[in-house]
Structures are given as structure tokens and as C-alpha cells.
């Protein structure tokens, strides 16, 4: 018995003598868990319902994949220099995938990462934004701008349509040009007002409200984040507002909203991130465009229409996802 114990002690001493120097030299690592983990850096331009919904949709989808992921969620609060600092942080932290929600955030990441996959989300025109490289892919939120403005003109008979846009954001400029072209095609006058940040939205709307019959707000992040100001000016002036982002109009008087459900944009973004994590090249993934009608929502505020003297045809009401009537929100789809 004593011999057995003495032998065991000697063996243990030999193991310790061999292993401790190895740990000291850093050559022995803890056993791997067997399941790789991935760190995802998410840079969001600012917090508003659409971009928040995109972020949540991505996270919810990835939670269903079985992948072991962790997130570094960052908000640039609408500041381009902050977006650049976030990108540098992600590079220092060596994230496995960098996600940019909205054009400026995606551009900041693209300026920093050469090989790490960069996934953009809610970017209208990736090519115009310069988001074209072997390590970049993502999801576009390009809207049917002409169809949206055509609907606005059909219902209101508007002869002049106004638009507020962010002149310093590629997304905003592209959407303004699309709206301008749509109005030309429809034989409608177009009046625009440029802003540099969301604090200027109300003043810009006031500057053109007397010269237009209706206002069209695209998925311009700086403008959408101050949508309540546009809504207030339109309400006081008795002018129709159409917003291309339904996610932010709850509680407002906006008469028409037609656009993406941004949660769907987020789910699609999550699918792109999954592909990148599993080794598919971003170049082969490219840009994903959502075309399923289920990914779009049409809202009508019938109370606002009544106040403004317009009638929404029943055929259009039947296709709407949401109606506001007698102060109540009626979800149809």
C-alpha cells in the first residue's frame, strides 16, 4: 500500500515538473470548449425606431442559429466622427464581424477594415456609398420611391411635393434625387430643403411648407429621427405627410406611411452575418434586396385624412397593414 502511494506521489511530481515550466512559457492553453465563439461589433448611426428594429431583428435571428455570439453594441448618436472612433475600437478589439446600421456607420467600418467581414444594414445605395469591396456585403433598404409618391399624388391630387433631406449623408442625397426624378416622371413640382443635422429639420420644413401641397419623407436617418417635427409643421399647416418608414409614426398625425418593416431588414442582416461567420465570402453574398410584399407595411391614418378632407378608397384600406380610426390603431395584417 505504501509503495503504491509513494509511486503515485512520484508520478504527480514528475507531471508538475513537466507542466509548470510549460505554463510559464505560455505554451500550454486551456482546453477548448469545442464550440467557437464570435464577437460581433455593431455600429448604429443613431437610435430611432427603424434602426433599433433592424438591430433587434439581427440579434433575434442569430439567437436561433445555435452560433455562440457576443455583441459590442455602439451608438454614434448621429455623429460621423463618433462612428469613425467606433470603427477603430472594433478594429482594436479584433471583432470577427463588423456590422454598420445606416450608411455613415457602414462607411466608417469600410474605411477601417480590409479583410474582416463588414456587413451593412439599412443602406439605400451601397454602390453610391462606396460600400464595394471583397470584404463587404449587406442588406439594402431601397424603397419604391416613385410608387410612394404616386400614391401620395393619387390620394391628394398634390401638384407640388416637398422633401427634406440630409445633404451630408449619401443615403439622404440619393433618396432626394430619386424623389426629384419621381416627381418629374409624374409631372409634379418638387421642392427640397437640405439639413446638416436633425436639429434643423423643423426649420427646414417650415421654410417650404407654404410652397408645397404635401411632404414626402424618405428613409433619411437624420430626418426620420426628427419626424415628429415634420408632422407638427404639416399638421398646423393642414398639409399631407407621407413617410417611407412606418416604424416611427405611432402617435403622430402622418396620413400615409408605406415602407419596410425594419425588423425584417434586421432578420435579413442576421442571415448575412451568419453566412459570413460560416465562411462564405462577402463578395459572393453581395447586396441583399427585400422584395417580398410581406416585408413592407402600408399605414393610413383615416382620422387625419378626414380632417384634411381626403377619402382613402376602400380598396386601399383593404391592403393596409394598419389603420388609425377614431383614435384607435387597427392592425389588419
Strand order of the biggest β-sheet? 7-6-8-9-10-12-13-14
Multimeric state: single chain
N- to C-terminal separation?
Answer: 79 Å
Helix content: 40-55%
Count up the helices.
13
Number of strands: 14
Mean pLDDT: 90
Derived from helix and strand composition plus strand pairing, the structural class reads alpha/beta
Order of helices and strands: HEHEHEHEEHEHEHEHHEEHHEEHHEE
- Radius of gyration, CA atoms, in whole angstroms: 26 Å
Report the biggest beta sheet as strand number plus sense, adding barrel if it closes. Answer: 8 strands, mixed
The low-confidence parts are: 1-32
Rough outline: globular
The fraction of residues in strands falls at 15-25%
What does this structure look like?
With 333 residues, the chain is an alpha/beta fold. It is built from 13 helices and 14 strands. It has helices at residues 2-24, 49-62, 80-93, 103-110, 145-156, 170-186, 201-208, 221-224, 227-237, 262-277, 282-285, 302-308, 314-319, and strands spanning 37-44, 68-75, 97-101, 118-123, 136-140, 160-166, 189-195, 214-217, 240-243, 256-260, 287-289, 296-301, 322-325, 328-331. α2 crosses α10 and α7 runs parallel beside α9. The radius of gyration is 26 Å and the shape is globular.
Amino acid at each position: 500500500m505504501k509503495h503504491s502511494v509513494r509511486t503515485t506521489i512520484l508520478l504527480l511530481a514528475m507531471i508538475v515538473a513537466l507542466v509548470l515550466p510549460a505554463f510559464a512559457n505560455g505554451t500550454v492553453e486551456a482546453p477548448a470548449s469545442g464550440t467557437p465563439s464570435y464577437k460581433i461589433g455593431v455600429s448604429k448611426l443613431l437610435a430611432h425606431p427603424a434602426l433599433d428594429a433592424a438591430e433587434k431583428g439581427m440579434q433575434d435571428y442569430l439567437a436561433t442559429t445555435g452560433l455562440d455570439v457576443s455583441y459590442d453594441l455602439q451608438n454614434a448618436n448621429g455623429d460621423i466622427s463618433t462612428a469613425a472612433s467606433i470603427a477603430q475600437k472594433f478594429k482594436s478589439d479584433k471583432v470577427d464581424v463588423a456590422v454598420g446600421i445606416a450608411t455613415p456607420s457602414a462607411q466608417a467600418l469600410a474605411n477601417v477594415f480590409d479583410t474582416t467581414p463588414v456587413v451593412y444594414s439599412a443602406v439605400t445605395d451601397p454602390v453610391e456609398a462606396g460600400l464595394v469591396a471583397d470584404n463587404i456585403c449587406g442588406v439594402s433598404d431601397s424603397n419604391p420611391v416613385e410608387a410612394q409618391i404616386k400614391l401620395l399624388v393619387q390620394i391628394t391630387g398634390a401638384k407640388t411635393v416637398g422633401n427634406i433631406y440630409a445633404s451630408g449623408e449619401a443615403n439622404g442625397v440619393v433618396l432626394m434625387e430619386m424623389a426629384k426624378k419621381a416627381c418629374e416622371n409624374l409631372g409634379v413640382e418638387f421642392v427640397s430643403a437640405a439639413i446638416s443635422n436633425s436639429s434643423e429639420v423643423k426649420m427646414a420644413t417650415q421654410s417650404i411648407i407654404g410652397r408645397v401641397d404635401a411632404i414626402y419623407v424618405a428613409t433619411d436617418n437624420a430626418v426620420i429621427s426628427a419626424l415628429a417635427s415634420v408632422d407638427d409643421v404639416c399638421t398646423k399647416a393642414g398639409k399631407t405627410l407621407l413617410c417611407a418608414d412606418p416604424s416611427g409614426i405611432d402617435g403622430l398625425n402622418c396620413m400615409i406611411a408605406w415602407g419596410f418593416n425594419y425588423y425584417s431588414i434586421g432578420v435579413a442582416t442576421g442571415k448575412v452575418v451568419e453566412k459570413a461567420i460560416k465562411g462564405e465570402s462577402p463578395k459572393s453574398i453581395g447586396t441583399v434586396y427585400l422584395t417580398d410584399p410581406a416585408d413592407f407595411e402600408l399605414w393610413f391614418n383615416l382620422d387625419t385624412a378626414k380632417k384634411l378632407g381626403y377619402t382613402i378608397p376602400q380598396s386601399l384600406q383593404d391592403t393596409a397593414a394598419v389603420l388609425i380610426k377614431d383614435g384607435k390603431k387597427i392592425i389588419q395584417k
